[in-house]
């Protein structure tokens, strides 16, 4: 018979609760850092989720007139076919300038006067010499007439044998000398008259007149200046004013020699002045200057306004569009040129095509009515005006109205 197992005391059946606090302390030791790490991740994730996305934008643009008809473009400056520095024809001291800058003048109008005292003295002397020459001519005529009568009388007497032949020869010689003196006196009168005309012309040169209708562009001298009618390398040393005909303005455009074959006299063109960026002015090609600038390999093409615009001035910056064909009648009407955007800026939404507009860094979705496609762009029959920034190739999953965005550097 097996031996009976000894029974454990009741104290051995009790649960030892002294190990539980130790395990809890170990779990808490790992739980607290985990919770702190989770909180840190949340704190980082929330700002990241709210960070403004970067978008690339362009401006809605208004197409230029004749953009589709443009063969090539060139830059240049406004000039006038009649532009001159007005200077006196004689040296002298300037005593009066009768015009001011910006003042219109007519051909023949007096613009300045020189000191004319010396010229008047020369004229008075020339007139006195004319009177002296005329008096000498009168005396020579009287002597010649007397010599002629004497010669006739002496010849009659010689025929009658009253006087010797030698005396007749002396009288005839004296008569010939009197005629030579008469001829000399006539020539002296002619010389004196011509000298008087020169003196009068010299006096007239002391009054400077405008050679053509124009506008005073610059005033180059004032009263008291001593002027000399000399020109050196295009700079007039004796200039009084610079006169410009504002009705004969044209643009001198520089075109590379490789593109000259695309330009013909009379070709249609459009001129855009930097001073009037929103306007285009119809023009025609005039002439091509028959010379090439070696340093730039360009030629100068004269492009003439069909109607010179009011406010255009010489030396204004300009751009010229040379057209391959004439413009349609409404080409210069802004209403006939709706604004354009890149085709990939337009996205399809539930209510139709839209664009994402960026204003003050915030997004706004605006509906548009798309018109004709031109190259990589589409016309907007309805939508935001020119100058508005729209998102190109928008990622609609990241965009929503009112969300702040960053504009990509270099875009717009």
From TrEMBL:
Residue ranges constituting the CusB-like beta-barrel domain according to the UniProt record: 251-322
Keywords: Coiled coil
Residues annotated as domain Multidrug resistance protein MdtA-like barrel-sandwich hybrid: 86-227
Single GO molecular function: efflux transmembrane transporter activity
Pfam families in UniProt: Beta-barrel_RND_2, BSH_RND
Record-level GO cellular component terms: efflux pump complex
Coiled-coil boundaries: 123-150
Alphabetized InterPro entries for the sequence: Beta-barrel_RND_2, MdtA-like_BSH, RND_pump_MFP
Family: Belongs to the membrane fusion protein (MFP) (TC 8.A.1) family.
Protein name per UniProt: Efflux RND transporter periplasmic adaptor subunit
